[in-house]
Amino acid sequence: MSRRVGTWVPDLMVWAKEMPPSSARSSCAGTAGLLLAVEVVSGGSEVVDRIIKKAEYANAGIPRYWFIERDGATTVHRHTLNDAGEYELELNGPQPFAWLITTVPGIR
């Protein structure tokens, strides 16, 4: 079952082991334990994935948001929620997907 975050269903979600998703009556509920939302940017979704969903996921308090470009390197943009409730690009910036699957990213 896909879980909604606000009005969106992320392409991939990672949940805390101790807090798996639970069913909710509201499409805006049920984000407790959601650690990461990932979106794959496609032709018609650039603005939605890069700006709108990013803002809504930050509003929902999701600690990490990644979006993946469908470019030659399949670039992954990793963002972490800061103390002001906004996403910041992680220190080493966007990375190719190949780097991501061969590296253990640091978690702050």
From TrEMBL:
<feature type="domain" description="Putative restriction endonuclease">
    <location>
        <begin position="9"/>
        <end position="92"/>
    </location>
</feature>
<dbReference type="GO" id="GO:0004519">
    <property type="term" value="F:endonuclease activity"/>
</dbReference>
<keyword id="KW-0255">Endonuclease</keyword>
<dbReference type="InterPro" id="IPR011335">
    <property type="entry name" value="Restrct_endonuc-II-like"/>
</dbReference>
<dbReference type="InterPro" id="IPR008538">
    <property type="entry name" value="Uma2"/>
</dbReference>
<protein>
    <submittedName>
        <fullName>Uma2 family endonuclease</fullName>
    </submittedName>
</protein>
<dbReference type="InterPro" id="IPR012296">
    <property type="entry name" value="Nuclease_put_TT1808"/>
</dbReference>
<keyword id="KW-0378">Hydrolase</keyword>
<keyword id="KW-0540">Nuclease</keyword>
<dbReference type="Pfam" id="PF05685">
    <property type="entry name" value="Uma2"/>
</dbReference>
